[in-house]
Amino acid sequence: MSAHGHVDMGHTVAGWTGTVTAVVGCVVLGVAVAAVSLPVALLGACLTLGAALLTWLLHLAGWGKPSGPRPESEWSWRVRDHSARRGHPDCLGCRMAGRRGHVPEKASNTVPVASTVTG
Fold first, then answer.
1. 77 versus 97: which is more confidently predicted?
2. Is 44 exposed, middle or buried (0-12, 13-18, 19+ CB in 10 A)?
3. pTM (two decimals)
């Protein structure tokens, strides 16, 4: 058992690809600082920022995961999330792409106020 208990930590293709790309970008930035090279620094910055875009695109393609726990049968990083086309509820990345996801209606305890029209 891990230090986090028996839970899914979200190991996905999108997560791993974005992380590796960001690490490579940071290493290139470090080399640029040591070499005092602006072009190499720009390359490292582009790789690091591109990692966020790449992760987002892979998430939208179904290689990420929705927020919250998943069934144990879907814990493998090779499992594709087919609900990504509709969008995940409470997912900033899906909202940025215009995908709202299915959000169940909440019961409202408020009473509608009748408007008065003066005329």
1. 97
2. buried
3. 0.68
